[in-house]
């Protein structure tokens, strides 16, 4: 039987560190909510804004798939694998932390904020060799269609990770009606509304709302106002 879970934007934990404003869908660092630990393999969904010239100092990660999707501004990344990169809107960055990495993330612009989604997934393989990848999707068509930006297959569209997960982005016009079909029927779907409004069944979703669907092989949606959507299809067991 289909099950759903709703995370309205204003129910997310809000953390204000001065240089960083973070809206956290799931428990993160010092904030613990037993009702919001994860959605299947999806462990972290943070909506972060970093002030000009500020950022995250060097810190470690291991055995986690870490995805960054910039929404505004330019994010500078540097890590212990020797990577130095700039990530801008229209791009996606992924790290398989594996046996362990150190990295920093900074706002490249001294005057303007940078906003990005920070997403962590549990991997299906532990202690892999750490790896980094980044791809530009800014010129790919996602108008009234789903654009795949992440998968478990290195030969498929988008970046790849050590998990049976697929991410899609779409920009949809008001009045558009569409659907999404799961790649794996045992997965769950988590829809995150970057911008706009839509309806799934009886549920109306607005900007920065999250909506999880389990035990369903598809979902149908109607766009109420021009919408930018991120769909994360993730295992419920791994």
UniProtKB/TrEMBL annotation:
The keyword Transmembrane helix does not apply. Residues 13-121 form the Pirin N-terminal domain. Its cofactor is Fe cation. Fe cation binds at residues 59, 61, 103, 105. The keyword Transmembrane helix does not apply. Keywords: Iron, Metal-binding. Residues 149-234 form the Quercetin 2,3-dioxygenase C-terminal cupin domain. CDD domains: cupin_Yhhw_N. Binds 1 Fe cation per subunit. GO terms for molecular function: metal ion binding. Pfam families: Pirin, Pirin_C_2. Belongs to the pirin family. PANTHER family: QUERCETIN 2,3-DIOXYGENASE. This is Pirin family protein.
């Amino acid at each position: 039987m289909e099950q759903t879970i709703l995370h309205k934007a204003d129910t997310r934990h809000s953390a204000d560190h001065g240089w960083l404003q973070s809206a956290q869908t799931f428990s993160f660092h010092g904030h613990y909510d037993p009702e919001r630990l994860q959605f299947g393999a999806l462990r972290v969904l943070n909506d972060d804004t970093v002030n000009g010239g500020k950022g995250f100092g060097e810190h470690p990660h291991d055995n986690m798939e870490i995805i960054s999707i910039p929404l505004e501004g330019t994010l500078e990344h540097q890590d212990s694998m020797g990577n130095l990169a700039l990530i801008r809107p229209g791009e996606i960055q992924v790290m398989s932390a594996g046996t362990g990495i150190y990295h920093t993330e900074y706002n490249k612009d001294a005057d303007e904020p940078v906003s990005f989604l920070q997403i962590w997934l549990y991997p299906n393989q532990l202690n892999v060799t750490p790896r980094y990848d980044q791809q530009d999707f800014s010129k790919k068509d996602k108008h009234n269609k789903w654009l795949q930006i992440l998968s478990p297959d290195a030969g498929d569209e988008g970046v790849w990770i050590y998990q049976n997960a697929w991410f899609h982005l779409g920009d949809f016009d008001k009045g558009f009606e569409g659907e999404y079909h799961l790649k794996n029927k045992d997965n769950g779907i988590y829809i995150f509304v970057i911008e706009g409004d839509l309806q799934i069944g009886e549920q109306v979703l607005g900007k920065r709302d999250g909506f999880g669907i389990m035990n369903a092989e598809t979902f149908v949606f109607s766009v109420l106002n021009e919408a930018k959507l991120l769909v994360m299809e993730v295992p419920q067991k791994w």
